[in-house]
Design brief:
The chain contains six helices and no strands. By secondary structure, the protein is mainly α. The chain has one domain. The chain is globular, with a radius of gyration of 19 Å.
């Protein structure tokens, strides 16, 4: 089975670092921001302080996802394409920011939905069957990854609809898992393609 090149490891590791580091820095630049209640998109909204920081993070993380998808040669093509599509939608979020107050941007909502759907479901379409398949691409593991992300997405959606006060926390939990899972899959592929160590014969 084909392995994942070194640049795929770098891109997959960079995505969670950029995502978590980016929203932490952007939140620190805001004069009034509640990371539990306020969404990440508010950091890039029109009127936000230094909104370019989070906008740039959206673009860079999307680029990392695309590079990772290109590097994930052991995965099935539909899953890789869905990951690319979700990443592209995430990048378009930066070009369609929320209005002040978090309302009024239909394009932002549409691209956010497409991006979240792609990043949530791609593991199922990337999975393979077979005794030599890396654990990150096995159907049961992929199904578990999708289930966890879908549960977090449902929590985030419920927080937005019910205005329950924890939308920011739910979105960050979802974003962290979505950013970390490609790295887990890449590492599983890299470890599975390591050459077997030759047995050591005892000296007589």
């Amino acid at each position: 089975m084909r392995g994942v090149p070194w640049w795929g490891v770098i891109s997959s590791a960079a995505a969670p670092v950029l995502m978590i580091g980016g929203w932490t820095v952007a939140a620190g630049l805001q004069p009034r921001f509640d990371p539990v209640a306020d969404t990440v998109s508010a950091l890039a909204a029109i009127g936000a302080t230094d909104r370019w920081v989070m906008s740039l993070v959206f673009v860079l993380v999307g680029a990392c996802y695309i590079v990772t998808a290109l590097a994930l040669r052991p995965a099935r093509t539909p899953g890789r394409l869905i990951l690319i599509g979700g990443a592209a939608a995430g990048m378009l979020i930066a070009m369609n920011p929320e209005h002040a107050g978090g309302f009024g941007s239909v394009p932002h909502f549409v691209w956010a939905c497409i991006g979240l759907a792609g990043l949530t479901t791609w593991p199922a379409w990337a999975s393979r069957r077979g005794p030599t398949v890396p654990w990150g691409l096995r159907p049961n593991v992929a199904a578990a990854a999708v289930a966890v992300q879908f549960a977090l997405l449902a929590w985030f959606s419920a927080e937005l609809i019910l205005v329950a006060g924890q939308a920011g926390l739910a979105e960050r939990a979802l974003g962290a898992v979505q950013a970390a899972w490609p790295l887990a899959v890449v590492l599983s592929c890299r470890l599975s393609t390591r050459p077997a160590q030759a047995p050591v014969t005892a000296l007589r």
